[in-house]
Structures are given as C-alpha cells and as structure tokens.
C-alpha cells in the first residue's frame, strides 16, 4: 500500500487556499518561479517518496541498523533513498541559487518533507537533521567554515547532526559537562559523551558534521557558559579533501520502539587526544545559536507527527471502506449481507476524530512554516518581526499538539482495524510506534509547556500571544457574518475568552510562586493548543462555506462539506472539556504538586 501517501487535494487546499502560497511569487526572491515550479517540486517529492522511501519503510523497521564494533550496517535501500533525495536537490532546496539551491519557499520545502515523512519517517530523519545542521552552519559559522563545509552538506556528500543530550542530562542543558579545551591553532579539543544522537553514525555520506554544545574550559556555569562547535567525523583539509579520522567514536547504538532505521547513537568525543572542534560564532553564545536548529526541529517534529497521523487516517479510511463486518443495529436478519465497517456510526466517529487531528495538525505545521517564510522574506520589517513573534509563541503548540493528538490518531487507526491493526501485516502498528517518539523528541510536552507559560508569556511579555489573539479576533469577525460558520465562531469566541482568563490567572500565579504556577503548565498548553486548533479549523470551515456558496459540485462539494463537518466536530467535542479544565487552573488546584514521593 505504498501508494497511500498524502492526499494531493488536501495538500493543494492547505498550500493554495488556506495559506495562499502562490502570493509568495510576488516577493523578489521568488520572481523567477511560478506555481508550476512549486507543483513540479511537490510531484518530484511525491515520486521519490513513493519509489525510494515508502517501499522499505517496513523493511527498515524489521532490520534496524547494527554495529559490529567497527562500522554500521543498514539496509541498502537507505543509501538509495539518501542519494535520491540529495540528487533531486532537496537538501539545498530553500537555499539561494548562488549556493546551488532551488530558492524555494520554506513552506513548499516542508510540504515536500511531509511526503517523505509519510513515506518513511525513519529514513528521511537523516536528511531532516542535515538540513537543520546546514542552516545552522550558514547562519552562524565564519566564512572559512562555511566555505569548507557548506558545499558538501548542500550536495549530500556530508550529513549533519545535533549533539546536545548527555548521559547525565537531557533537557537541562545548563548542566552539560562536555568540555572544550582551546588548542594552539585556534581550534578546540572536545571531551565528553553525547547520547540519543539521531544519525550520529552511518556510512550514507563521506562525512558527518556534528553540531555540538560544550563548555569551554573555565566558562561560567549554567546556560551562559555553553558554546557551539562544529565537530566533523573526518577532518577536512583546506582544499576540501578528507583528512584523518577525528577523535569521535561510536560507543554504541540505542534500540528504540520506533524510528528504527534511524541510528540512535552514543558518541564519545576525545577518547584519545580530543576531538578537533571549531567554534561557531562567539564563545558562550552556543545555546542561543542552537535554538535555531532546535526550534526548526520542533516544527519538523510536529510535521512528522502530523504526517504519521495522516498516514494512519488514510490507511484506516481505506480499510473501513473495504472491510465487511456485521450489520446495522436495526437489521436483525442474519441472512442480510454484511456492511462495510465505515457504515457503522462508531467507526465514522473514530474516522472523524482521526480526520480532525490529522488534517488539523498538517494545517498547523504548514502555517508555522509559512511564518518561518514571512519572518525571512516578508517585504515590511514589521511584518517580518510579527511573524517571528507569532511563530515563537506558537512553536510549543506546533511541536506538542500534533505529537500528542497525532499519536492518538494512530491509536484510533489501530482500533479501527481491530485485530488486523495489531499485526505487522498492516502498517498501523508501526505508525503508532514511530509516532510515540514525537512527544519526547526536541523537548517533552512538559518542557514546551514551561517554555510557553514561563518564558514566552512571562519574561518575554507576551507579544506573540497578543498577535495570536488579534489573528483569532480577525477570523471571528469574518466568520460571525457567515451563516454556516457563525455557530462555530461563537464557540471559538467563548474558548478564546476562557483562554484569556486562564492566561491572566496563571501569569499571576507564576509571578507569585514560579514552582506552583508552572506545576500545571502542561494542562495550560493543552488548552492553548485546542484554541489554536479551533482557529485553524474555523479558517478551514470558512473556505468550505465559501466554496459551497459558489455551488461546487461532486467530489469538490464533498471535500468542502467534509471540512465543515470536521470543524463542527472539533468545536463541539474537542472543546467540550476546556471550561472545566480551565476552572481547575484558575482555582490554582495543586493536588498533584502536593503529592509526596513516599505516598506513591
């Protein structure tokens, strides 16, 4: 069933109706493009995903990479997929023509990535990480490093990673202990160990460029003492040729329940004389630089979760339309033919729940990618600044909502298939296992919640939040005048009012006692996320209503009617518990906070 990737009609709707991606052609950077270029790129991505990624998704899961003490072994199809991705120019797609790129908008690249995620999220992880590492080098490395490392990273000869986590610390990066000792030649020698480094070792490329957070000898404690280093697996000579093996060793592979074809590694830096590392940017500013790659990865993780949710949905839908099972409750005749399971109301309920999670998550992630684009290429400085602020406050939601509810969509998909969903003969169980990592990837849900409530709505002053509220109010104004959407707008307006009340309440609680105030940050993030998704669904419903007003017919009418029905479901069912949950937060209910260790 490798032909079941993303629905092309859905993707066109997201890109050209909900986001108006075609309007980007008016910006100077894209003046040489047209919609045909965007569509051709998407078609190429779909073809490569279907031909080189999807066919070995199950095989890579069943035959994960191994380490014999000297080298990594993985299925040959992984290398073919990497080469196909690189040869088509996707590693450099959003870079300038002058750098060998295709100069594509960020949102078009990420729509392409959705195809690859849907086809084989474990194999495309190598490319995903390399794109982020390349962006980091381009943004902050000096000219010498850029000239030496960017060309081979852009054309696929080198891959990249991010090396943050250590055995003694995970999200608490201020406690990392990897040491950087200055050398006489202006480089550094890196000593320490990193773990859970995805793509940390393999033989897909000639070299691997590790972006490593470390503390320069004598640096201050905490996050203010962290610096960023470029540490290659093999040293690179001035002429671009490979030199000696750097003092970076694979200490072992970790074995996860999903993403199995992505090597998850423990790397040892400096087991001998120290790994040669090159300081990126200024000393002690490493964490601020790395946030670029981390935030990019957070949006990417959300998109990966959305893609897996969508895969689960369309496979479950396909199965439900084909599988005969039982009869409707009002049919008591055992001789009557069985009906397809999609005719059972409870199955349609589950499918509708999957639809709102999968399509909503995809829309949210592509919207976030459009904000990335606006933050870089919008014509007015204020527009660029506002896009960056809005993206900043929404990033925790973009990362966590698809990860949490996309996983639930996968769980529902298994349930729809019943016993078949629990077998490896169908891909649903793998989608669930693969997606289970995403609520952990790039900061757990709790970390994102504290970031939102404690930093972005606290010390930052909430500028992005106010921009978000303004966007929602603008949509509500339009929707309130639409007969079909006015009831939906009323429900979202109520939800927005609740969100504003609980936000003010929790900000006061955090100011009074940060430990107590942030104890329920994750439920707050969930409330915030549901309001964001309500807005996303209201915008889709408005487009559906306009299309029906224009009297579209046939499959097009069905498509837009489906959008309206999904929006009604979301506003009615997914918003139902919001008020009671908000009341608990505003009442400063800290039952969990006061639970004692010894009581468990």
Automatic annotation (TrEMBL):
UniProt keyword terms in alphabetical order: FAD, Flavoprotein, Oxidoreductase
Xref: Pfam families: Acyl-CoA_dh_1, Acyl-CoA_dh_C, Acyl-CoA_dh_M, Acyl-CoA_dh_N
Domain Acetyl-CoA dehydrogenase-like C-terminal, chain residue ranges per copy: 470-590
InterPro entries linked: Acyl-CoA_dh-like_C_dom, Acyl-CoA_Oxase/DH_mid-dom, Acyl-CoA_Oxase/DH_mid-dom_sf, AcylCo_DH-like_C, AcylCo_DH/oxidase_C, AcylCoA_DH/ox_N, AcylCoA_DH/ox_N_sf, AcylCoA_DH/oxidase_NM_dom_sf
Family the UniProt entry places it in: Belongs to the acyl-CoA dehydrogenase family.
Residues in Acyl-CoA dehydrogenase/oxidase C-terminal domain copies: 285-450
Stated name of the protein: Butyryl-CoA dehydrogenase
Keyword set includes Lipoprotein: no
């Amino acid at each position: 069933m490798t032909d079941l990737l993303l629905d092309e009609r859905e993707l066109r709707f997201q890109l050209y109706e909900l986001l108006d991606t075609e309007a980007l052609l008016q910006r100077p950077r894209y003046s040489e493009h047209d919609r045909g270029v965007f569509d051709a790129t998407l078609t190429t991505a779909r073809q490569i995903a279907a031909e080189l990624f999807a066919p070995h998704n199950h095989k890579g899961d069943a035959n994960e990479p191994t380490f014999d003490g000297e080298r990594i072994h993985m299925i040959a199809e992984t290398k073919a997929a990497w080469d196909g991705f690189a040869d088509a120019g996707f590693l450099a797609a959003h870079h300038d023509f002058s750098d060998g790129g295709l100069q594509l908008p960020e949102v078009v690249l990420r729509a392409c990535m959705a195809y690859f995620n849907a086809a084989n999220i474990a194999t495309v992880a190598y490319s995903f990480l390399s794109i982020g590492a390349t962006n980091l080098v381009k943004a902050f490395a000096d000219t010498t490093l850029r000239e030496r490392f960017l060309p081979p990273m852009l054309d696929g000869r080198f891959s990249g990673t991010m090396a943050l986590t250590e055995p003694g610390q995970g999200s608490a990066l201020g406690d990392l202990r990897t040491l950087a000792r200055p050398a006489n030649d202006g480089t550094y020698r890196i000593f320490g160990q990193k773990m859970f480094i995805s793509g940390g070792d393999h033989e897909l490329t000639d070299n691997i460029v590790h972006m490593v957070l470390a503390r320069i000898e004598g640096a201050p404690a905490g996050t203010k003492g962290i610096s960023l280093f470029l540490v290659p697996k093999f040293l690179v000579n001035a002429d671009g040729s490979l030199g000696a093996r750097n003092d970076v060793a694979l200490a072992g592979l970790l074995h996860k329940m999903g993403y199995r074809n992505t090597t998850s590694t423990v790397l040892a830096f400096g087991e001998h004389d120290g790994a040669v590392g090159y300081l990126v940017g200024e000393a002690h500013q490493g964490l601020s630089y790395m946030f670029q790659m981390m935030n990019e990865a957070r949006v990417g993780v959300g998109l990966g979760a959305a893609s897996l949710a969508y895969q689960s949905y369309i496979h479950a839908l396909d199965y439900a339309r084909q599988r005969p099972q039982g009869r409707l409750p009002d049919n008591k005749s055992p001789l009557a033919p069985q009906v397809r399971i999609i005719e059972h109301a409870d199955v349609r309920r589950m499918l509708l729940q999957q639809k709102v999670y999968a399509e909503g998550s995809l829309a949210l992630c592509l919207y976030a990618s459009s904000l990335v684009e606006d933050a870089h290429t919008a014509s007015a400085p204020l527009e660029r600044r506002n896009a960056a602020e809005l993206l900043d406050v929404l990033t925790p939601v973009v990362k966590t909502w698809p990860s949490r509810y996309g996983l639930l969509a996968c769980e529902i998909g298994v349930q729809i298939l019943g016993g078949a969903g629990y077998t490896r003969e169908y891909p649903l169980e793998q989608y669930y296992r693969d997606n289970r990592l995403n609520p952990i990837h790039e900061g757990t849900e709790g970390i994102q919640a504290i970031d939102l409530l404690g930093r972005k709505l606290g010390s930052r002053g909430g500028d992005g939040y106010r921009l978000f509220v303004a966007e929602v109010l603008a949509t509500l104004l339009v929707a309130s005048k639409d007969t079909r959407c006015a009831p939906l707008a009323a429900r979202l307006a109520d939800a927005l009012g609740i969100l504003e009340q609980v936000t003010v309440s929790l900000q006061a609680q955090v100011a009074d006692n940060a430990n107590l105030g942030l104890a329920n940050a994750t439920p707050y993030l969930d409330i915030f996320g549901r309001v964001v998704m309500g807005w996303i669904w209201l915008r889709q419903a408005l487009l559906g209503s306009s299309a029906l007003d224009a009297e579209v017919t046939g499959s097009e009418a069905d498509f837009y009617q489906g959008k309206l029905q999904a929006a009604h479901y979301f506003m009615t069912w997914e918003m139902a518990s919001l008020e009671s949950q908000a009341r608990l937060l505003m009442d400063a209910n800290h039952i969990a906070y006061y639970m004692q260790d010894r009581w468990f």
